[in-house]
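From the pipeline queue, job 12 of 40. The input is one protein chain; the requested action is below.

Action: predict structure.
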Amino acid sequence: VAAVRTAGVAASLILVALAAIGCSICTWSSVAVVVGVASAAAGALGSDLPCGPLLGVLPPLGCFCCGNWGLLVPRDMLEGGKRSARGILPKLCEQILSGVLEVVELRGAQAGGVCTFVRDSHGGIDTLRSRTVKPKRGHLATNLFRDFRWEVVRRAMRGFFASPRSLPVVLLQGHSRFGTSSSPAVSETHPHQWLGSQRELVWRFDAGKGGWRREETTVCVTVTHNGDFDAFELYGQTVSNATLGLWLTRVLHHCNTAKGDSAKFAGLMDLMVCQGRWFSSVRYAFVRVCMLHIDQASGWEPLTPQAPNSVPSNRFFAEVAGCFDAMWSKWVGQAPDILPEVEDIERLATAVKGELGGRLSQRAMAVFDEVDLTDEVLTAFCLEACLCFFNQDLLTSIHSFFKHAEGTFGVSATCTLWPHSIVLAAKGQPVSLAFDMERPIAVWSSEPSALTVSWPTAPGGRPKRLATARWDLNDAAGEAVELRVFEGASAQHHIEAADKALAGGLSSARYFATPDIKIAQERKFHILIRGSSLDHSPRPLSAAAFAARWVRLRAPPFRTARGAKPAAAGPSLDPVEADIRDIPAILSDIDSSWTDRASLNLMSGQKFSGCLHRLLEQKQDDSIDVLVFGVENSLWMGQQFAADMKRIFPKLNFMAISSNWVLGMLQRAQGNIEPKNFAIAPQHFRLAGGAIALALSHSGTTYPTVWASRLVTRLFGDVNGFAMSADFDTVLANSIGQELTMNGFTGALFSTMAGVRPAEPATAATIAMHHTLTCLLTACAEQTAKRSGHRWCLERKRCDGECELDVDEVMDLKRLTASLLPASERICGMTEYRLPRDSEVRTELLEVGAYISSHLTEGWYSTFWMCFYVYVTVSFHVPLFSMFWSRYIAQKTELDEDDVPFQIIDYIFAHIDAHFYVFLAVLLMLLHRLICGRRLWTRFTARTLVIVDSTMNYKLLRAYGSKLGALAFPFTGFKVAGQNGEDHFVHEMTHLAQSDVILLVGRADGRLGTLAASEGATIMSTQQAKYICSRPSRGIEAISIGHNPWAKQGLFSRAVVLPTDDRPTFLSQQLLGTEAGAFAPGDVVAASAAYIETTREVSATGFEPFAWVTKDILRQELAKLNVPEDQISKDDAFAVVSNIVKARADVLDIDADAFDAHEVCVAWLRRSQRGPFSDPSTPTTENSGTVQATSAWGIPSRASPTSWLQAVKQGFRLKTAGAGADSGLSLSDLLAVLRGRRMNSHIRALQLSRMSTVVKEHVQAHDQMMDALKGVKKCFDAWAEFASHSKAPGELVATTTSEVPSAEWRVQEEFRRRRRQHFMGLKAVGLEAKVLHAWRKALKEDMTPLKAYLTGTPPKSHLSRVTSPCKKAFGGVGDDAQDGQEFLPIGGRMAGQAADGHEMLEGVRPLERLYETRVAAAERLMASYVILHRAVKPLSKLRFLRYDLDRSESRLRVASTPAPVPFVEELPECIEEAGMVSVTSEEKVSGQVLYTV
């Protein structure tokens, strides 16, 4: 990236210099060369400047997130040999932290830093710190560790090549930052140091080396901070962060240029950490005792940057500290191993007080006089200084800081006095630690999922876990821990020695070993821990309390995006494409988890459904029953989920809002942000008793969602909190009361099975959450429908608001949901077993993506070749037209160079060259468009992609597309917008309908009756946008994605048709005749309206069962009856029509005996009474006793009282005026009967009657089959229990040697998931596995496929032709394996129960709406992912302009600090503390349901 940034500038300047040197002779040609080269260089220089069009503007001021990370490990314990363990930064540690940082940087990574301890040239301990501001398109880990190695070199050069030496323990303290309170800069980047390294006299106590010793050494305190440091309490008043910085500058007599909040935290730690240092102790005591107000530091003037500094100088503090040091030296000389108690400290303070008057200079005494130091205050000052000297170690100082700080904090702190120790603290921000005590190694991170990275191994090697256990700090209440490495002996020995040493202010916080360690066993190194709560009255962390939250890591190690690629996917996949190809496998994993009776997802779904059922029973007021909240993608999917749930459960009140608005509604403290565009006032924002709160967050650590869930579950004691994230092990899980240390599962967690997905453009994570929500919706509908026990009935649905779906409809919904997996395989190009799969639809999607890519890359190609042409022709004096003139044409003419005509022609060709230079880029663009098959005369500018789809889809795709191009150079950039085609698109976007706009239009399947109007509205919106411009070449360009093959001619330049081969046919398709082929949505709407407003008289447009009949065929039929063509009687006509219809009865799927030729011919008989020119008012028809007349168009009118019986008695007459009544019928008359409207309606009515009969037969057979299969089901249920290995995990846990409690439910779930994945692998290669899987799936999910398979192929009908999932699972076993048919369409049962087409269309409407929002929208979403990725990927690979698709400049994927609404008040106490005991059955335990798996 650096080479790219500087190459253009350097090359431009060099070219100018070479041109000037080479053209020293002042001729017109040389001047032209120099001017041309200089102009090109100026343009290149301008584009390469930081604010130029190539590199973009300077980094903006930011706000949001950061992350802490680091490791602590003895150097000798690093694997891989001496080479990987040597050096200040061992290569192995760099690889580990790079993997951790790959995940942590999702919280933001504009800058980063790392710090470690080294031995300096004096033999002391010093810090070595490197901080880096990442380039826009750089990799933070790569840049950070590269700069760290350079810092080592610079340190060696400053010390005259005396390189800093490494220590036996590697402690790396790191931080990645996204600007929260200041812009990215090295001075604002962590780790922070206010004073830096300073030489100071230090007292240390070591019982093993004779007690106290005094030495001068380097002291430096280093901190990192994740969160927001809002204010600090000083002298009883709250001081803002900016004012605190001014105060620290005066107190510490050192100015820190950093403007951010974290630097002030570093200054306070420099002030507070003073154990063993009299200078710092005296200074801190003076601040605490002698100063009474912050303005005292500025001579009682307002504390501003210009105010004076009236704090005593460091010389004064050093002089006073000398008195304390002398007295303490005297004491140590008398008792070298003294460990003073409180009484001893008071005596020491009194002794120092008595000596101060005689030892201090007059200047120092004047300072005491200025602060009006009374005897009482002096006593307190001396005592406070002594207490600070003995107590203020790192852990105590952290506790002191948190007692007065306001904000959210995840911090780490180190000091050169304790190079083997680090203190980690959390309050409002997560901090997690991972351990492998066999090495031993400790790793920490602000992102828990980062701790699952693998131990560095050779390429192709089997991944190993970095750590075996994890422990999370309690960030809700506040907690701090100290990690320290001890060398040799046993842990018990070091624990006892630490108890005899100087313990600090938190003396009750004793060291202990981790649960995996036998403390009596001798080891080379030990990592011991101590900790405390951050309350005003600290509670020490005991070994038992630590062990209770000790979580064993049993999940497979995570490999970062650069190493995690699907099998057989190839090495060229970027992280976004790898995620897209993982979608089928993830969907399969989700489906398996929701069909596994022992899975946690299904358990949580059952509890969620139970809570929903109780809400339905007790619904009384308009309070919120189900609250769904999240941010960005999670919120948009949650809103669609809430809308769909409302359709199914209309009785309940669902609400889906942003997590920020939940915080705004529920907080009352000062500083709260109240939502201003919300219809509900905060005082009316209330949840019903037993309400459900569902928190959605893929990462599980999103700040607003985590704190909103905590606040909701605390404020509403009877609320049922649920959380959905990528794994069960998240901070969000702890927020709702499900801690990993609980042996019982509360049934409140859902996992999307997506795992860690570092790519910022979310694909797999989004689809996984959407599908998991679909499974949850289906589970709720199924449980509620089973409880009600009702079957479908239109009247019942109109009056009963409990559930809009019955049991049969839920089964249909599950069939529709199951069709998403095979569709995803076709779209994503991978099977659920992660094997490549080719499909036509994927090829079409990639072609459309390549077509859009040609739009986006034309600027680069035209500019590149233009620059190449300019540089070549100008540098070598060979402009195209001038060269052609001078070398070819001029030589063949007799003109002399001095002649005026020659010079005129020369200038003309030069002028042509100038025009060619000016318009060359345009010409190259036109050539590029011609080659790519695009419109020529469109705007020569960047393209704008506009997503036109459902609200959820356009928001998800707008975020996805913009993130794909977040790092694109402005020169090749593009814009992304979106809107709902059924709503605001016309009003919001059509004023931008220019030729540089490309619409990506997602269309609902208009072949379904309910969705036809939706597709029609979308097409209308697209037409309005396209036809605004009068000239077709100047308007927008539209690309279609949908399931309906129909497309209006000329509207779409490209149209991708998503396959519906795996989707069951809908009943409405059967009714309207739209099962296969392309149908205009307007025609389907008209047909649907006809069915609803009338009966079955009108069929769908295009339904003509006898369109194939011609006059030749009629002549053949007449010949069979020996009837002449010119002598056709009425009876002969009836016979011919009946024979033709009965011959096609099987094809039409009707009962031939039910066909009534007389009924079909009624309208024809009535029209045959008159000629085409007869009086339209002549009475001819009668309908149900009401006399009617027929118009000239044959349409009945309500007039003319003539009996229809009289018309029939008249017989068939010729249709010409004046013709005789007995002249017979013609072939045209027969064709009019067979292809007329009455025939079509009659055939459709017979089809519906046949459908009802078939459905009733199958339903009855299905019910009988269910009774017969009960015994069979028991056998296969026993096999299913064996296949799910429900007992094996328990045995595995029972064999664990450790007695420490752990998350048994989490271990079992991971074991089940592995077994499911293993089973899926077997299914891909083994016939037995396929058969067993099919039986198991059929028995546990849907008995219909099993019944169809056991009873053979059902009677053929015109219903859904979809391959049976059961037979499909056999992969071609048997002769008719591919011919097995599902005999019921979606909503098929209604055909046997509904009275007419009206009820059937109305009955299938809910399923069609749910199909669109839950399945069809997801398929279009995946297809758009593939298209946009294919379109943008070539941009990221352009030469000189490369960038990473999977990230943005901020690298922000998880907003872990206020975004932007903060949590500004104390978290209320739990109304009921969640029980942490396991129960043997489902029961209520302190408001939570616990399950034993």
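Job complete. The mean pLDDT is 77.
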